[in-house]
């Protein structure tokens, strides 16, 4: 009898210990799992300037200067192709150092930290300046393939310090073309396409990423949907996941200035545009590229709840999607 009591007691104790252990598991970074499928990993969801934002004295950032939140990284996607032991990065952000470390956790044990290719969207600071870490002062990398559109390629080739990365063969630029499919393997293809944006130094592109089973659309920066000569609703219909520019939520963030003056599609404008879609179509949409002022960055905010209630999603670091 005594033996039986001890037995049951030990079961109760061990099961409560397991429950406690599960509860204590941090959300980040323990969600990382090795995958055997071609998949897409969110490596960051914040606008170019990152989080906390330089010189910000508003509530959005003050606490974060004291207690940094390592889940707040600049927008980047990782694509894993375990079938061919390759991995690709979309965007080279100022947070690239920690993003490559995070990304490596999803790949095989012997996988190297450096990606097999980097796809750039445009020449704004959050989307390409991470390339600097491949140069002599940092990694002194060797011939990392970088995929860029023609103007972006010329910009990098003809302006220091980026040109030095080519002279020293740290990176090797491959030219992309509007709507021209690039075949990375028989199971993985990438199609860049031009979008309207503030193009001082380069074009701006979005990407369609085609896996063996599913397709993703990635448009981190774009002017208002109506300024694009392509119907975003048709583009969403053609894919399984759509990661879309969500820089600002509404006018409150910009001191109630007229939101029509700001080129990005505000989340409230996008939700209105997509309001007539079926729940299946809405379910494909993941907002990404949040300015530091955007309340949707906070998973507990009322704006986050509204977005989710309406059937859309918010892309958060470490989320993975099979392609
Ligand atoms: Zn941006
Ligand atoms: Zn801020
Ligand atoms: Zn931009």
From TrEMBL:
All copies of domain Metallo-beta-lactamase, residue ranges: 88-289
Extent of the signal sequence: 1-19
Protein origin, superkingdom: Bacteria
SUPFAM superfamilies: Metallo-hydrolase/oxidoreductase (SSF56281)
Gene3D superfamilies in the cross-refs: Ribonuclease Z/Hydroxyacylglutathione hydrolase-like
InterPro entries xref list: Metallo-B-lactamas (IPR001279), RibonucZ/Hydroxyglut_hydro (IPR036866)
Keywords of this entry: Signal
One Pfam family here: Lactamase_B_2
Any coiled-coil regions, as ranges: none
Name under which the protein is recorded: Pyrroloquinoline quinone biosynthesis protein B
Organism encoding this protein: Gillisia mitskevichiae
